[in-house]
Amino acid sequence: MNQTLKNGKNLETETGRMFTIKKLIGSGGQGEVYEIDMEGRPFALKWYFIDKGTEEQRGIIERLIKEGSPNERFLWPLCMVDSPDLETFGYIMPLRERNFAGIIDMMTGKASPSFRTLCSAAYELVDSYQKLHSLGRCYRDISFGNVFFDPKTGKVRICDNDNVTIDGAALCGVGGTQRFMAPEIVRGVASPSIDTDRFSLAVLLFYMLMMHHPLEGKKELDIHCLDGHTMKKLYGVEPIFIWNPKNTSNTPDPVEQRTPIIYWSIYPKFIKALFIKTFTIGIKKPKERVVETEWRRAFIQLRDSITYCGKCGAENFYDADKLQNNEPHICWKCGNMVKLPPRIKVGKSEIILNFDTKLYAHHLVKMADFDFKAPMAELSTHPQNPNIWGLKNLSRETWVMTTPEGLVSKIPPGKNVLIALGIVINFGSTEGEIRF
Question: For a Cys staple, 312 with which of 150, 211, 284, 334, CB 3.0–4.6 Å?
């Protein structure tokens, strides 16, 4: 493969740090990406093609370097690179770890994450874009190609950050990726913005959970030649959500498009409601699209709703609406009824108490940030009887337990609360009740 920079070539950053080109790892419309060695550590270098390395693009990169990354999940520009024998420039960024896969790998079956991993990855994505948007910045091109995740943990990496601009800036360049762009961009009546980012983000989230595009139902199947005109109509002029409750003209075909039908049935009502909002009201009213804070709470709730089928072990989701309507929880994989384990209600949250459940500060402390690093409680079994389960206090606080009969006792750090119906636990700033 031809490449602009030869392996072994030595270059220098604007700040005087030397590095060596190791190998070409990718090429796109704007330039090439190389793995480099800088002072014994691996990094990535993006090198622009001559026609793409404009002064405007350099200005964008220099501003991003000066401002710094919104968080560690962005593979953000670190420093500029020029070469005296070449007419263009590049920049250095962190190198994506080898264990990270693309969202497209999940779509093609190369990566098979659990639902827990998907919830974690979706949370990290919306949390990252919330931090970017809170700085008044627009990503412009949220799509398959720019997001990677660890199939085991759900940790996320976001690349191609060199197109990030100020929200509403009428700059030329990247307008988005086909099938991810907001309808108003497809129609050519708007430029990329935080509002259009939110539409693209919702498309990506729908793909991750449903393995399908939210606008590709029967109408897409009826198109024999998907050219520019028909794509503009499908995604921009007449976009119809495949699960629009008021317009069923674009529902998935039960034979040719079974995948979204299967996955839509798996998820609880609250997560489906957010997709319905974005792809019905939000299609015509960009300001009413679901914002990142809503998605963030929803994916925490979805993660807390995971339970396991007692027959096949598959992950399923607890749905409070089904319980309220006396509908059974049926395993999507084996078709057997799922027996729900106990759950704890803390404030507005309900957390399923599985054998592997952990509770964190955002569960037990009012106004605490979302953080999965330090659990404050976990499920554990009695040392003499594995059939007796308790909630172990991993915090530094002493909890107060009250039984349905009114008996009160203290639960110091390291001790357990018996999982039993009606037990109320005072965690300090919040209370939780065990339910069955």
Answer: 334
- Give the bridge partners for 390, in sequence order: 380, 418
Long-range CB contacts for residues 407-415, cutoff 8 Å, separation at least 24 = none
Q: Is the dihedral of CA 414, 341, 317, 363 positive or negative?
A: negative
The residue to which tokens 């300001």 are assigned: 287
- State the residue for tokens 């699209």: 289
Which domains does the chain carry? 10-93 (3.30.200.20), 101-297 (1.10.510.10), 341-436 (2.60.200)
**pLDDT for 173:** 58
User: What integer pLDDT is reported at residue 369 of this predicted model?
Assistant: 85
Task: Give the pLDDT of residue 1.
Answer: 60
Per-residue H/E/C for the chain: CCCCCCCCCEEEECCCCEEEEEEEEEECCCEEEEEEEECCEEEEEEEECCCCCCHHHHHHHHHHHHHCCCCCCECCCCEEEECCCCCCEEEEECCCCCCCEEHHHHHCCCCCCCHHHHHHHHHHHHHHHHHHHHCCEECCCCCHHHEEECCCCCCEEECCHHHCEECCCCCCCCCCCCCCCCHHHHCCCCCCCHHHHHHHHHHHHHHHHHCCCCCCCHHHHCCCCCCHHHHHHHHHHCCCCCCCCCCCCCCCCCCCCHHHHHHHHHCCHHHHHHHHHHHCHHHHCHHHCCCHHHHHHHHHHHHHCEEECCCCCCEEECCHHHHHCCCCCECCCCCCECCCCCEEEECCEEEECCCCCEECHHHHCCCCCCCCCCCCEEEEECCCCCCCEEEEECCCCCEEEECCCCCEEEECCCCEEECCCCCEEECCCCEEEEEC
Print burial letters for 94-122: b (CB count within 10 Å at least 16), e (below 16): bbbeeebbbbebbeeeebebebebbbbbb
Taking the C-alpha atoms of residue 199 and residue 245, their distance in angstroms, rounded to an integer, is: 19
At residue 258's C-alpha, the angle toward residues 252 and 261, to 5°, is 65
CA nearest neighbour of 160 among 171, 172, 176: 176
Amino acid symbol at 161: N
